[in-house]
Fold these 2 entries.
Entry 1:
Amino acid sequence: MNTYVILCDETQTSAIVDPGDDTDTILAMTDGTQVDKILLTHAHADHVGALAEVKAATGAAIYLHPAEKERFGVTFDHPLADGDVITIGNARLDCIHTPGHTPGMICFRLDHRIVVGDTIFVGGPGRTWSPQEFAQTMKTLQEIVFQWPGETEFYPGHGPSGTIGRERADFEAFAAGGWLDDLHGDVTWQSSPSQ
Ligand SMILES: [Zn+2]
Ligand SMILES: [Zn+2]
């Protein structure tokens, strides 16, 4: 999975997003910076595997949407909500709530770049475990994610980054084609309605 570090060049203040594993590598990524926040897109085990060690090593405060604590039991220092603004030195991150893959997923936007967790990947949405979660995912993608400008770069929790513009046609073709009521799991935009 992907861990991201967001750094303010002017102050050398940093934030770690989703410390999933490999504490040594994460701490090397932030070497020489003042780590003052650990931001969690969501609380799946593969995104928080190094959380306790990174927290102990940095003393940074953990930010998470409260619905994630309810579902997964991961504790935090500061609750996140849609519309919150997080500062990292002189940089400002906007928090965007994108439920679907999990109930408390938060994306972090820095100008035209957005860390999206498992909200969307190149080629398809994050995995879902029920038709209700898949329906919520599609609602979030239609009403929030694909409202972002085409040049928006998204940085997911797994795999390569993409742009909203390059994903839009495949997503819209899938949405226009409709899907079976019980569809969920590992869906791609190439999934046909009969699958
Ligand atoms: Zn996940
Ligand atoms: Zn994940």
Entry 2:
Amino acid sequence: MKNLFYLPMWYFKNVLLKKEKPLQTVLFITDYCNLRCKHCNETGHAGTTMKPYNKIKEELKYAYREGSRFVDFEGGEPTLWRDGKYRINDLIDLAKEIGFFSTTVTTNGQMPFDYLKADSIWVSVDGYKEYHDMVRGEGTFAKLHKNIANSHHPAVSINMAINKLNYKSVLDVIKYANASPYIKSVSLNFHTPYPGTEHMMLDWDKRCAIIDKIIAMKKEGYAIMNSVSGLRAMKKTPSSKYCWVSNFILTDGTRLRECAGKQAGICDQCGFCMSGEMASVMKLKPDTILAGMKLRM
Ligand SMILES: C[S@@+](CC[C@H](N)C(=O)[O-])C[C@H]1O[C@@H](n2cnc3c(N)ncnc32)[C@H](O)[C@@H]1O
């Protein structure tokens, strides 16, 4: 119940009074990864840092003090994270002890993740079968398919980044998610052209045409996390951005008020669905608010 009161209070302080403090935190805990995905930029492949437990504790406390109540553990591959006896579930417990309302882990699903205690799990599926393998490497779809089925977690969803290699597979990914009893919903994002990955970005016309098809499937009842208003917002270069709703703490400890895309100067080409969802939440679009509540509560 206290969580429900927190959200209108947060909105009042940060949106209406323009304090602009985060509600959610994307916390990068390692840059070690067991894949070399074609759309991921080099920093995700560095393999130099396992952030120490005590540093993560300090960062979680900082994010909580700032007002954040939702945390997503990211990487690299976050399930590879370790520090002595500590594993990722210790970070999830720690976030809950500090007071975060919910925790999320984004994983490539290449190893079993049935042990994860996060409230929700995002598995990256960048295409159906061979399309996914084209982006993430041969055999990777089969592995994640098996691990999703064996996870027995009630809140496993799919995250897809749509790019030049996999755009023909979007509708099949939506159908795959819908047909699986183990997958709750699918979140659809477009490739964001971080340095070195510009060639993977889809033309804007194709992006808009795909968004229309996604909206049609959403209206047919497919379990798509994006709201219709959020999807429509992704068709335009937004006049106002609300990316400060999520703060980012990078593997090297850099604390950003917004995503690294801002520093790279690529906000106008942003493909992350959260950008569209946030713009719609701020306009108090009911379907987006409902989608956000379903996602986080
Ligand atoms: C960087 S990965 C890290 C977590 C984990 N290793 C995984 O593969 O899910 C987090 C998510 O970001 C997405 N991603 C990576 N590069 C992207 C880009 N340039 N544009 C949009 N999404 C991207 C991935 O597809 C994945 O769903």
